[in-house]
Amino acid sequence: MRHLVIFKVAFRALRRNKMRTVLTMLGIIIGVGAVIAMVALGRGAKAQVEARIAALGQNTLMVFSGSVNRGGVFSGFGGAGTLSVEDSQAIEKEVPGVSAVSPEARFSGQLMAGNNNWNTEGRGEGIDYLTIRQWDIAEGAMFTDADVRSAAKVCILGKTTADKLFPNEEAVGQIIRIRNVPMKVLGILKSKGVSMMGSDQDDTVIAPYTTAMKRLAGVTMLRTINVQVATASQMTEVIAGISELLRQRHRIQPGRDDDFMIRNPQEFLEAQNAATETMTALLAGIAGVSLLVGGIGIMNIMLVSVTERTREIGIRMAVGARGRDILLQFLVEAVTLSSLGGLLGIGLGVWGAQLLTTFKHWATLVSPDSILIAFVFSAAVGIFFGFYPARKASQLDPIDALRYE
What we know:
Elements lengths: L1 H15 L1 H37 L5 E6 L3 E2 L2 E2 L10 H10 L3 E16 L2 E10 L3 H5 L3 E4 L4 H5 L4 E4 L1 H7 L9 E4 L2 E9 L14 E5 H8 L7 E6 L5 H15 L10 E4 L1 H44 L1 H9 L4 H37 L8 H27 L3 H6 L2
Helix pairs in contact: 1-11, 2-9, 2-11, 2-12, 3-8, 9-11, 9-12, 11-12
């Protein structure tokens, strides 16, 4: 019963000075809101990076052609084709842990269909490319192994490309021209969105790599080989196996640089996540300063409140209130200020994150654990900064308190 009375007295004291109570909570409200919004911004960026990496496929590796030295001039990575179709076939057959391989030859040009035309970059790929990229067909079908062997004049279109060339009609079964080569559209890909580099993945055309090399790009070497590893635990082993195989096939002597480059998208994800987490911690730390300032504001107001209510404290002690009752009363007031401010701050933070997404188009992700942590921290601020004023009030001498004017 005594504790219920203490809580009633504490709440009555807060209601007596409504404006001061609101202004005191303002620091906590802004602090908690800023922390939640900044953490949501950081987590949204992290989720966006993870989604874009996932769009490349699961357990994937990309083998790029490397640098070549011609007369003392290095072309740079990807500057010359140093990979062959035979290299991709050898990787698939000889490297343990490899589950799928797709040789890649790129081409670009104007695509024409009737009165419509569209300039885009296309890819020549193997039949396992969509499996590696985890990319589904929305309409029609993928080209077959027979199409690859015969360098058939067939292709599949990304959704953006299909919409540009065939805005008001079905694209499957239609004929388009790429560099004046007639190509039959076999299928339309499902939309995949923006890549991790910011380009539209749906703005593409995919043909058999043999067709791309012989008919569209006029090349005999590859720039890229896409590889899918059976399990994530085999990544390191497969990278080492591919490196050893290609060095052997390309007759690279010990101590000489590779003429190829192997990239694991997971490494990019880890680097991006590290940068995002650092930025999130920095933003949350800056926002946390306002939460600290709010706590100092609570301590300041509670000290003022103790001074103003010294005579009241003396009267309560004179009629039987103990020191711990006074301590609990002022501690309840401080925790109530910070907790209520924390709840309002959570609402402000969620609303702020939604505004960032709506008006700035920034990815945000408000998670339940960040809300819980923010609320617990705001309550802890009230206990930490409210304890000293409460303890000071509980140690007042009743006689001196009654004499206080």
